Protein: ATPase inhibitor, mitochondrial
Amino acid sequence: MGAGDIGSTKSGFMAEKDSFAKREAAHEAMYIRQIELEKLERLKQKLKEQRKHMNELDKHL
Structure:
């Protein structure tokens, strides 16, 4: 460290780069969560359809 350095605080470009990386990671996490929720909804719908089909088959037995 040189004279006047205050340690590990980031300033200028590095601080902006770090906050951008955090923001990008947050957006990516939100996107992945949204995709996972959509997949879960499709699976729930498919399960509902399968249950309906199984109930119809049970009626015929």
In short: The mean pLDDT is 86.
